[in-house]
Design a protein that fits this description.
Layout: E1 15-19, H1 24-35, E2 39-44, H2 47-56, E3 63-68, H3 74-87, E4 93-96, H4 114-134, E5 141-145, H5 168-193, E6 198-202, H6 211-219, H7 222-231, H8 238-241, H9 243-250, E7 259-262, E8 272-274, H10 284-299
Parallel strand pairs: 1-2, 1-4, 2-3, 4-5, 5-6, 6-7
Antiparallel strand pairs: 7-8
Helix pairs in contact: 3-4, 4-5, 5-10
Bound molecules: NADP nicotinamide-adenine-dinucleotide phosphate.
């Protein structure tokens, strides 16, 4: 039996934070969790967009709260975590969803390559800041939104910021592999601490969101725009694309350290299923190394 939205358990009394909740998969995840009665913190870089999304979803149910968070600035990340600690004091679900895909080389506020900074490091820092609020919550979960691109990624430890050589797609794949590695390393650490918090990962296959138009706009590539038009039949809706992360966040059968994606051909579309994890993500030494480097970069 496929897992559908109807299987998403009741979320009343639970608080979820979703990054990038104003668009695409994040928006659909917010809609689904609010409809199940959750308090949903919509953590977005644009307060105006977050507020507009809260208004758009107001009739759905739950409680919707805009939260300012720019993952490209570690100061903003620390501030957002502080706000959550001070105002709500507890968190059940952290869904690290926001992302940017394959822009020309740009730098974060701290001078780091943008995809590494937003997709990986900002989420890493946010998770560190929020985990203490999750430890005492039964059934708490951190979901890392990765991608099929993780299968093609490698971590260039000698040039993490693409200073010597930058390829926009390789940097995207690196950041999405980093999400997967972090999901597994966090799970190992939580297990070793005897924590009940689970760390899991998900990917949406190919979902029609703002990710592709933003990528095309950033690169100004007419060829890419054409490629997306031709590939359109392979894509599924954002609502379908959000199901694997909703499964990872809420399904009682989702497992710690699991990776969930669409179950159809090539894992491009369909209902959530466990997926193969990129072999490059499985080595605990790589996990420990990326963790160490990420901690050091967060400390500046
Ligand atoms: N769509 C797919 O086919 C696909 C496939 C594989 C993986 N994914 C992953 O799915 C996740 C969600 O993407 P999506 O497809 O839903 O794309 P989307 O519609 O473009 O949404 C991305 C979200 O991330 C936010 N964001 C970008 N930079 C940010 C920053 N510096 N700080 C905070 N938020 C920021 C965006 O905010 P703005 O609206 O302000 O730009 C937006 O809310 C990403 O991690 C992506 O890598 C998507």
């Amino acid at each position: 039996m496929p897992w559908t939205l109807a299987d998403c358990p009741d979320q009343q009394g639970r608080t979820a934070l979703i990054t990038g909740a104003n668009s695409g998969l994040g928006l659909e995840t917010a809609r689904a969790l609010a409809a199940r009665g959750a308090r949903v913190l919509l953590a977005c870089r644009s307060h105006a967009k977050a507020t507009a999304t809260c208004q758009e979803l107001a009739a759905v149910g739950g409680e919707l709260i805009p939260l300012e968070l720019d993952l490209a600035d570690l100061v903003s990340v620390q501030q957002a975590a502080r706000t959550v600690r001070e105002r709500w004091g507890a968190l059940d679900l952290l869904i690290n969803n926001a992302g940017v895909m394959a822009p020309p080389r740009q730098l974060s506020a701290q001078g780091l390559e943008l995809q590494f900074a937003v997709n990986h490091l900002g989420h890493f820092a946010l998770t560190q800041g929020l985990l203490p609020l999750m430890q005492q919550r039964p059934g708490a979960r951190v979901v890392h939104v990765s991608s099929g691109a993780s299968y093609f990624g490698s971590i260039a430890f000698d040039d993490l910021q693409g200073e010597r050589r930058y390829d926009a797609w390789a940097a995207y794949a690196q950041s999405k592999l980093a999400n997967m590695i972090t999901a597994l390393e966090l799970q190992r650490r939580l297990r070793d601490q005897g924590s009940g918090v689970l760390s899991l990962a998900a990917h949406p296959g190919l979902a029609r969101t703002n990710l592709q138009p933003s990528s095309v706009a950033a690169r100004g590539s007419k060829l890419e725009a054409l490629a997306y038009r031709l590939m359109d039949p392979l894509f599924q809706s954002a609502a379908m694309g959000a199901l694997p992360q909703l499964f990872a966040a809420t399904a009682p059968t989702a497992e710690a350290g699991g990776f969930y994606g669409p179950g159809g051909v090539g894992n491009l579309k369909g209902y959530p299923q466990p997926c193969r994890i990129a072999p490059a993500a499985l080595n605990p030494e790589t996990g420990a190394r990326l963790w160490q480097v990420s901690e050091a970069l967060c400390q500046g």
